[in-house]
Amino acid sequence: MRRVRYYEYGGPEVLRLEQAEVPEPGEGQVRLRTEVIGTNYVDVQFRTGTAGVFRRELPADLTGEVVGTVEAVGPGVDPARIGARVAALADPAYAEQVLVEADWLVDVPTNVDIGTATVLPMNAPVALRVLRTGQLAEGETVLVHAAAGAIGHLAVQLAKLLGAGKVIAAASSPSKLDFARGLGADFGVNTSEPDWAEQVRAVAPGGVDVIADSIGGAVTATNMDLLAPLGRTVLYGAIAGDFGTPTFMQLAQLKYVVGFSLLAWRRARPEQARAEIAELAGWASAGRLRSVVHASLPLADARRAHEMLADRARTGRVLLTI
């Protein structure tokens, strides 16, 4: 089978398309024949060898959400699953056949498009749980950073579905803000402008109730100042390279920050995590939640896909197809 991995850190040119043995599923695993792979920006950070949380030992594989067909099962998995069309979070993911955990397979509704199918195992559950970890209540104001990204554009839609009063999209260009408004955002703030925080205050003079923060760094500190009393920031990424450090005085103003990890959530509340996936699949099937695909490329063009992931003009998902 063909797969993509890298043997040194660097730009997209370090990605190698190579031949590898077809993997055999172990206990509790299934093997999928890949149809499409949803790529994620975090692998750009892994690939460049960023220190700290974005560090992978070499040689390294790439992660992603795979939609495909179950073609083999390991011990402890019902053979009736063979032939099912499913989606799953995979690591490694950039390959013609991948191994995934059977417990977290998502059956793909027949009326859901391929781009939306790719977000059901990971991106959509993250977006939903970030908002719920922030205890979003009906009528509250939400600020979504990276609102045109793979998770952010879903968080915009889900915030409206959960009853948010105002959804403020934060993104780095006017075109991205137009994109987020097209998905339901009520307002947009341009984070490439130095007064972006003032733009938020103009929209929400009383403060923001919930902030979905995938940026980290100095943005997290600014977010804390933008919160209303008893407001909540949920930090689920660190595009800036670090998670930032809220000050004691910020926290002392009855403001809260909490970190979120999908894998930690699955371990802590597996049944609730599965119920939320089913909830999301239902919204997708009903046409109330959709993912937007920026580009779809063949596996051999993984380098080009990574260039697009790093491109600040990108909106929505970049897919690799087999």
TrEMBL record:
Q: Which species does the entry assign this protein to?
A: Kutzneria albida DSM 43870
Q: Where is the Enoyl reductase (ER) domain?
A: 10-320
Question: May I ask which residue range the UniProt record assigns to the signal sequence?
Answer: none
Tell me the SUPFAM superfamilies matching this sequence: GroES-like, NAD(P)-binding Rossmann-fold domains
Q: What is this protein called?
A: Alcohol dehydrogenase zinc-binding domain protein
Q: Which residues form a coiled coil?
A: none
Listed GO MF terms: oxidoreductase activity
Highest taxon of the lineage: Bacteria
A Pfam match is ADH_N
List the lineage, top down: Bacteria, Bacillati, Actinomycetota, Actinomycetes, Pseudonocardiales
